[in-house]
Amino acid sequence: MNATPDLQTIVIVDDEEHVLAICDAILRMAGYPNVVTCQEGGRVWQALQTHDVGLVLLDLNLPDCDGRELLADVTGEYPHIPVVVITGDGSAQCAVECMKSGAFDYVVKPLEQAQFLTVVRHGLAFAALQHEHEALREGILKRKLNQPEAFASMVSVNSEMLALFSYLEAVARTSQPVLITGETGVGKELLAKAVHDASGRQGPLVAVNVSGLDDNLFSDTLFGHGKGAYTGAVAKRPGLVEHAHDGTLFLDEIGDLAPGSQIKLLRLLQDGEYLPLGADVPKHSTARIVLATHQDLRALQETGQFRRDLYYRLISHHIEVPPLRERKDEIPLLAAHFLEEAAEQFGVPKPTIPPALIPLLFSYAFPGNIRELRAMVFDAMARMHSGRLPVAPFRAHLKRHAPGTNGQARSHALGERMLTFGAVFPTMNEAKGLLIEEALRRSGGNKSLAAEMLGMSRQALNLRERRRS
């Protein structure tokens, strides 16, 4: 099953031509264009073999076969495809018999449009979950990307990040929303683009930062408006949801959404429907929604700042991107990548990385994450004169953020204690020795860098080492 649920084929089997026509019209108006109708049960097998079927709507009273036997055969042969029974018998006994034969659900004639569409959406969502389970089992356990080109912009060798790539690739072709959280600068927007590239969707990726949008501006930006919807609306204007037709809509910083906007977003995610300003009839969206925030949505919903129902709607596919300080094995690769990018932009040969630079970067916590590292590299390249990348700009940047300047604020921002102690409290001399050992470890044995981290001269560090030995 490769297509998204909205684009999968829905097969309708009923011997009454007018019922087929009504079902077909309701589905197409609701945004499900791929519909195959059958008046005979025998044609079902051809449809299942030639189309990417996401749902079967089956009448039990058929002229050429027993509908209950056909139901059992279809669910046995295609267990991942839900079958909804269409029946004129609304009794409890009929419902029980249908479920025993493998039906996902049933609807009663004459069809009520809202109930009918609700059952269809639930059936397609179930099919999507079946597909996700299989994809996750095969993709994540193997830790192998089938579409590595979709993640080419993510420069990484970190095992945790590679696991995230596998997960995102596995869920990329579903219609369920994806929530990406993490600190500022960790690459959330790049991951959203990777999800879109791996999804196979034909529409565009449309991105919008919703931070700072009040309720009216949020509605106008996403859903558009009709002519005369408000003063100044002289013409109809489609919103970004419509621009993202058959594509992906990326909503950044959703933790800042106003309460009214949260309700509208929930309706879009839950029912696939939205109401342009000034319109009376809702529209159906075929856009996949990917969302991101640097805020803790769980904490926000516990304090009432973020809707609980929206929170639980979003976390079905949720990844937390680790900060750069927790994946420092990426630093050499990222530094080389940004050097190449900067050299191309400045029109100069790519310089080699000085030996002292990587241990220096390893000693830093990177509160600004990858974005901060890129800015540091570009700043150093702008100051390069001799063809050799200068280390001084990096040292100056780290010094501005070192303990003693804004160290307390940085420690608070990172949510970490500067020091932790075990059961045995060290003496002052032991603590000094442990600090020296840690500085040498973080600097990769570079004594000049270790001394700088400790706030002492190289000679003073050598003296302390001799006293310890």
Can you tell me about this structure?
The structure is a single chain. With 469 residues, the protein is of the alpha/beta class. Helices cover 47% and strands 12% of the residues. The protein has helices at 17-29, 43-50, 67-77, 92-100, 113-142, 159-171, 188-199, 215-223, 240-243, 259-271, 297-302, 308-314, 331-346, 357-362, 369-382, 392-400, 407-414, 428-442, 447-454, 458-468; strands spanning 9-13, 35-38, 53-59, 83-87, 105-108, 178-181, 205-209, 224-225, 237-238, 248-252, 273-274, 283-284, 288-293, 318-320. The strands form 4 sheets. Strands 2-1-3-4-5 form a 5-stranded parallel β-sheet, with helices on both faces. Strands 7-10-13-6-14 form a 5-stranded parallel β-sheet. Strands 8-9 form a two-stranded antiparallel sheet. Helix 8 (215-223) runs parallel beside helix 10 (259-271). The longest helix is centred in the N-terminal third of the chain and has 30 residues, at 113-142. The N and C termini lie far apart (67 Å).
